[in-house]
Each structure stands twice: as structure tokens, then as C-alpha cells.
């Protein structure tokens, strides 16, 4: 008996073919450490058409957790659940189609899934469609309506986007609602909410509104977003330094997209770890004193994928050459000591990596916020330091023309002395990134 669930009864229902009971039984067995029995149950539920079971199973197949890794099978199972409008499956399938992970890359199909989700009122799809349109340069009432529809359906990321807009004076929501959403955001751990509450001191928190009517999403929305993000025009880059080769790209993404990265990464931030060059294992390293996280495919959404593709475009490579998007977060006193981003041949853990996807010739960073002191990206040998504004990118080269490590690329993040620093980072590989 666990917390009011009669396991005997659940087991009998599962045995009699009740897919929901099989799904719950799988969770119970997994909690009891009975992995094989749990997976058997989960597969039964999935075969019987249980949508959450299909989603869970495909996640396991994607990561290799609990079952053998089988990415193309994961895509097939997800597609079955997505065809039945399963929200999480549609969302993950759209990312995999955009990435071409386990299937052929098909950006228009990925966007079509997002649009279908939004039309069905899926709250994450509503918000993500608004942000994707913004990335594509569409900033209009439809985006506001999409965010409102998402926020009033309970999506705190969308609600906080509207709060930021309110603070910039866009007039969409009243101060009372902005205060209410900010309080809710703080409760739910939205990283930007805490600091904003002081801005609403005089206001009385309003009641939460009813879900707004779904906005009408026109047919041509698909053609507006048909170009793959990596093929969008690249903002002008400026060469800052020859050695190491450093370029800056002002405004690679807008502030709302920076906020989206921050909000999406926050729940998974953990003290940064480094790869031990000898063992290949991850370990804590006092040298790298920050919080970080990496978005694996199952953590991504179409907006984050598109941002990653933009970062690759800024480095002049196809999106499959980028490692997964990472986020670093520094509080006062935190830093990232001088290091090279490129892999070190000969070090045990890194030879296999070099073999698989080649060297890391470039790094792309996006500065996600401002208002902090310290925290510049500093090339310690070259004597060059840089700190971009919100949404600005820096692209630098870690190797010389002959592929050897450029010792001038040694860099650090200097300690943050006041406020907090958020940065998105993508390491670029020589070959397609295999993970
Ligand atoms: O935070 C920074 O400015 C540097 C980050 C960095 O060096 C990296 O992500 O490799
Ligand atoms: Fe670095």
C-alpha cells in the first residue's frame, strides 16, 4: 500500500489489461527498484495505446535510461502519441524533427506541430509560438494574444514575459495582475520574479483572470516561419581581435528570448562540473565556480532549438555542429577560471570525444542579462575583455588555422562582484555532434 493506492487492486487491474493501471503500476515498480518488471508494464501500457506511457517510454529510449537507447524508435513512438494530440509528445517531436534527431530534419513539419498545439490551446505551444514569431521578427498583437492565452492557462513563463512587457510600459496588463503573476512566479521559482516584486509595491495584487479566448491563428503563419532558423539573415558581426579570432554579433537574439532561456534553464541549474581529462567522468571543480545546466533534446523546445541554430549560424556552421545549449549563472563571487574550450588530445576522456565529433574550434556565447558588475569574458593572454549587452553574442576561435590549440584563446569569466550574470554557451564541433 502506498499513499492510499491499493497495489493489489492496481496489479489485478493491470493484469486484466487496464492500460492506465499498467502505467501506474510501472511507476510503482520503478519506485520499488524493480526495473525489468516496470519496463514490461510500461511497454504493455504503451502498446495498449496509453499516451503518457508512450511518451515516457520514448523519453527512456531517447536517453538510454531504463531501456536500450534507440532514438529512431523513440521518434516513432512519440509520433503515435502526437497523432493523438498528446501535448508533451507533440512538443518533443517538434524538437526532434527540427534537430533531425532520430529522423530527417524537417523544420516546416516541426513548426506545423507547434502551430497545431497552439490551435488546440496547449499552453506551452501558445507561448513558444509567440516567442518563435518574435525570433523571426514578427512583433504584433497576435504574439501578445498568444502569450495572454498561455499565461491565463497557467504558463508562468508566458505570464512573466507579459510582466516584463508591462514594466516596459506596453499596456497589455494592469499593475495588479503583473503583481499577482510576479508573486506566483516567485513561488514557482521563476528566476526573474524575486527581484521584480519591489516594482509593484504600491499595487494591489489582482485575482487571476479566466483563460482568454484562443487567438485566431492565420494559415500564413506557417509560411512566415518556413525558413529554418539557421538560414535567417545573420546580424552583422564585428571583428574585435585577430588572435584569438574574436567577433561580436550585437543583438543576435532579443531580450524576450534571453528571458526565455533564463526561465527555461533555472529549474535544472546545478553547481558546475568539469570533465576529468583522465577519467572522462564529471566532477566538481572549484576552478569553475558557477551554476550551469545543459539542455538535452528532451529539455528543449522549438524556440531554444532555433536560438541554438542562430548561434551556430553566427559561427558559420550548420546546427548539427553545435553541442547542446548550456546556460551558466554566476552569483557575486562566482567566476570561471582561465581555461581552453578546445579538447585536449591525449587526455583519456577526451580522445573518444575527439574521435566522435572532432575538435571544438569555436565557442559562441550570448549575454542574457545586464546590470551586474564584473563578470567579463576575458582573454587573459591576449589582454582583451568583453561584456556584451542583453542578447549580444561573442564568437571566438579556439584553434589556429592548422587545427592546433590557439594558446591565445585561454579565457575566463572574471568574478561577478555585484548582481548576477546569465550566459548561454554553445561549443562548436568540427564534425556533426554525436551524443
Ligand atoms: O561566462 C563567460 O563569460 C565565459 C564562459 C565560457 O568560457 C564557456 O562557456 O566556455
Ligand atoms: Fe570557455
TrEMBL record:
The entry's keywords: Dioxygenase, Endoplasmic reticulum, Glycoprotein, Iron, Metal-binding, Oxidoreductase, Vitamin C
InterPro entries for the chain: Oxoglu/Fe-dep_dioxygenase_dom (IPR005123), P4HA-like (IPR045054), Pro_4_hyd_alph (IPR006620), Pro_4_hyd_alph_FE2OG_OXY (IPR044862), TPR-like_helical_dom_sf (IPR011990)
All copies of domain Fe2OG dioxygenase, residue ranges: 320-430
A Pfam short name: 2OG-FeII_Oxy_3
Known cofactor(s): L-ascorbate
Domain of life: Bacteria
Keyword Cytoplasm: no
Gene3D superfamilies: q2cbj1_9rhob like domain, Tetratricopeptide repeat domain
Annotated transmembrane regions: none
Name of the protein described by the UniProt record: 2OG-Fe(II) oxygenase
Organism listed in the record: Kordiimonas lipolytica
Biological classification of the source: Bacteria, Pseudomonadati, Pseudomonadota, Alphaproteobacteria, Kordiimonadales
Amino acid at each position: 500500500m502506498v499513499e492510499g493506492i491499493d497495489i493489489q487492486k492496481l496489479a489485478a487491474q493491470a493484469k486484466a489489461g487496464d492500460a492506465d493501471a499498467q502505467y501506474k503500476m510501472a511507476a510503482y515498480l520503478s519506485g520499488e527498484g524493480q526495473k525489468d518488471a516496470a519496463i514490461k508494464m510500461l511497454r504493455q501500457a504503451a502498446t495498449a495505446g496509453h499516451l503518457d506511457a508512450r511518451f515516457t517510454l520514448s523519453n527512456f529510449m531517447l536517453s538510454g535510461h531504463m531501456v536500450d537507447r534507440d532514438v529512431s524508435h523513440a521518434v516513432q513512438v512519440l509520433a503515435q502519441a502526437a497523432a493523438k494530440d498528446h501535448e508533451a509528445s507533440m512538443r518533443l517531436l517538434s524538437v526532434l524533427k527540427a534537430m533531425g534527431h532520430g529522423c530527417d530534419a524537417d523544420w516546416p513539419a516541426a513548426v506545423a506541430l507547434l502551430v497545431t498545439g497552439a490551435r488546440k490551446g496547449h499552453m506551452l505551444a501558445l507561448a513558444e509560438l509567440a516567442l518563435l514569431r518574435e525570433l523571426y521578427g514578427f512583433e504584433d498583437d497576435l504574439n501578445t494574444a498568444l502569450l495572454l492565452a498561455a499565461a491565463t492557462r497557467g504558463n508562468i513563463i508566458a505570464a512573466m514575459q507579459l510582466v516584463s512587457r508591462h514594466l516596459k510600459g506596453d499596456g497589455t496588463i494592469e499593475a495588479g495582475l503583473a503583481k499577482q503573476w510576479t508573486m506566483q512566479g516567485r513561488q514557482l521559482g521563476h528566476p526573474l520574479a524575486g527581484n521584480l516584486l519591489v516594482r509593484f509595491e504600491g499595487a494591489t495584487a489582482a485575482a487571476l483572470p479566466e483563460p482568454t479566448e484562443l487567438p485566431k491563428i492565420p494559415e500564413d503563419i506557417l509560411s512566415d516561419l518556413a525558413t529554418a532558423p539557421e538560414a535567417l539573415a545573420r546580424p552583422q558581426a564585428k571583428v574585435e581581435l585577430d588572435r584569438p579570432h574574436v567577433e561580436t554579433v550585437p543583438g543576435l537574439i532579443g531580450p524576450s528570448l534571453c528571458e526565455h532561456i533564463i526561465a527555461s534553464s533555472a529549474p535544472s541549474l546545478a553547481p558546475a562540473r568539469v570533465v576529468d581529462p583522465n577519467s572522462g567522468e564529471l566532477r566538481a571543480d572549484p576552478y569553475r565556480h558557477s551554476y550551469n545546466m545543459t539542455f538535452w533534446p528532451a529539455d528543449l523546445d522549438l524556440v531554444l532549438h532555433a536560438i541554438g541554430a542562430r548561434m551556430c549560424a553566427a559561427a558559420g556552421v550548420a546546427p548539427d555542429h553545435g553541442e547542446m545549449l548550456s546556460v551558466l549563472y554566476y552569483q557575486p563571487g562566482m567566476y570561471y577560471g582561465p581555461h581552453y574550450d578546445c579538447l585536449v588530445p591525449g587526455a583519456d576522456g577526451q580522445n573518444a570525444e575527439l574521435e566522435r565529433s572532432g575538435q571544438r574550434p569555436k565557442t559562441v556565447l550570448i549575454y542574457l542579462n545586464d546590470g551586474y558588475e564584473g563578470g567579463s569574458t576575458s582573454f587573459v593572454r591576449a589582454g582583451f575583455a568583453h561584456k556584451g549587452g542583453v542578447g549580444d553574442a561573442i564568437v571566438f576561435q579556439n584553434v589556429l588555422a592548422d587545427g592546433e590549440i590557439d594558446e591565445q584563446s585561454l579565457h575566463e569569466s572574471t568574478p561577478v562582484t555585484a548582481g548576477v550574470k546569465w550566459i548561454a554557451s554553445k561549443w562548436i564541433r568540427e564534425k556533426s555532434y554525436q551524443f
